[in-house]
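To the wet lab folks,

You asked to see what we're planning to order before we commit. Fair enough. Below is the target structure as tokens, and below that is the sequence we designed to fit it. If anything looks off to you, flag it before the synthesis order goes out.
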């Protein structure tokens, strides 16, 4: 197999689409990601299948929606039962499929899909952060390198990149590689980032973020209680600094690829697991930043940038895409087919679309879920249904882009409610597994680290 089909995937935690220069943020500095976008493809309407960490990551690595792979909330790693379980034992993962097709597969960074200390199937190189919680951006932290655990002190972003570079330098040069670089700096708590970066953001206007209208359909909880958000300007300066630090380390890996002469032979993908609110709608957090859970734009929109000069011309695409599409795109790029299975895959490879620079027919509705919440979003309307008894919302993103009003009960919008409800039921009816569907998940009275994954019998 040609080594010109190398793949480097940056999968960043809690990186909202709104917080990159190439997506329109004029105050944040992301020169390396902007460079990738300028020379590659920027997907303007990329979404997460679920606005919380573990379900979204599982969707990327399996190509399945949560109601297929069965993970519906973040997996509390400090809970022994949760943290040591093989959650994807029944799935053929992207790593396994690529390994079977001759790829050398590596991970450096966050796993968050259970049993992080143990190298997972399909990976030849395994450097993962341990199960310590809460997330710390510096100081001592447990790591696992190919199954051997140790404690190391230093900034995680740098350490994760150091091991990614180690993989690139020690790899088998006769084989193509797929390397996951999973950064965490953008996750809460919003503090303790490099002062040299934070200080440059304290005088920002943070226009369109601070003073945003409160989300009227849920009470704030979880990350909203982080003490760091009590000073919103400082928390935002810290978050912006985290983004810029990750951008710097993206540049370090680009430099390494260039030094090895393989930059032009490598598909580079930058994506996050889900979005994040840093005061937008008055929320600090993502989909689980409120109860009931939310699907606001900042929670579900993600950056997705792809660059490979030999395959793609620079362009901006407006199609609705998510992690299940990216899963199939990466397999298609690698020349690997989908596993034979009775369960259908909901995504679609973007490769023919991106290679030919054509506006091929594409879906016009994006679906999402979070436990018993299900969403259908068109370019104008967004229906959020919480089964079985609500509350439900319908947003008109043209009339009310900040999602402050629900038109669910408005007689004028009943045809839209009926149509999008039918589309939700059709989509999940085709793809969900009866023993893994999110409709079995009960919504808890408060978020509980050790209980969030459990379902009603």
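Sequence we intend to order:
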């Amino acid at each position: 197999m040609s080594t010109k089909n190398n793949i480097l995937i940056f999968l960043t935690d809690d990186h909202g689409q709104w917080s990159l220069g190439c997506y329109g943020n004029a105050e944040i500095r992301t020169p390396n990601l902007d460079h990738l976008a300028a020379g590659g493809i920027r997907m303007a309407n990329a979404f997460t299948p679920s606005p919380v960490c573990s379900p979204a990551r599982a969707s990327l690595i399996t190509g399945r929606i949560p109601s297929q792979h069965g993970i519906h909330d973040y997996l509390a790693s400090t809970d022994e039962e949760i943290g040591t379980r093989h959650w994807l034992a029944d799935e053929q993962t992207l790593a396994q499929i690529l390994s079977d097709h001759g790829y050398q597969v590596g991970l450096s960074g966050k796993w968050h899909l259970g049993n992080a200390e143990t190298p997972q199937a399909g990976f030849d190189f395994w450097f993962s952060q341990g199960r310590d919680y809460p997330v710390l951006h510096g100081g001592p932290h447990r790591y696992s390198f190919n199954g051997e655990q140790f404690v190391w002190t230093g900034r995680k972003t740098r350490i994760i990149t150091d091991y990614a570079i180690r993989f690139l330098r020690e790899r088998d040069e006769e084989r193509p590689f797929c390397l996951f670089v999973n950064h965490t700096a953008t996750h809460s708590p919003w503090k303790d980032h490099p002062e040299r970066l934070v200080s440059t953001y304290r005088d920002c206007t943070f226009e369109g973020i601070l003073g945003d209208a409160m989300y009227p359909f849920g009470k704030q909880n979880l990350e909203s209680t982080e003490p760091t958000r009590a000073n919103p300007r400082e928390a935002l300066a810290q978050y912006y600094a985290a983004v810029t630090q990750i951008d710097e380390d993206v540049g370090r890996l680009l430099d390494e690829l260039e030094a090895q002469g393989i930059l032009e032979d490598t598909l580079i993908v930058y994506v996050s697991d889900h979005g994040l609110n840093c005061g937008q709608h008055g929320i600090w957090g993502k989909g689980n930043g409120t109860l009931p859970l939310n699907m606001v734009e900042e929670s579900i929109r993600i950056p997705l940038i792809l660059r490979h000069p030999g395959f793609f011309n620079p362009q901006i695409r407006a199609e609705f895409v998510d992690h299940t599409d990216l899963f199939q795109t990466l397999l298609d790029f690698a020349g690997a087919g989908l596993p034979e299975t009775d369960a259908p895959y909901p995504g679609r490879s973007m490769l023919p679309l991106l290679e030919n620079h054509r506006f091929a027919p594409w879906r016009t509705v994006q679906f999402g879920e979070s436990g018993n919440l299900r969403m259908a979003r068109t370019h104008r309307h967004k229906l959020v249904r919480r089964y079985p008894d609500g509350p439900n919302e319908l947003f008109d993103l043209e009339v009310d882009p900040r999602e402050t009003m629900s038109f669910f009960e408005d007689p004028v919008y009943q045809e839209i409610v009926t149509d999008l409800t039918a589309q939700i039921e059709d989509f999940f009816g085709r793809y969900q597994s009866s023993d893994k569907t999110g409709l079995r998940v009960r919504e808890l009275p408060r978020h509980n680290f050790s209980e969030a994954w459990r379902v009603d019998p």
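Structural context that might help your review: The two ends are 47 Å apart (CA to CA). The chain has one domain: 3-363.

Thanks,
Computational group
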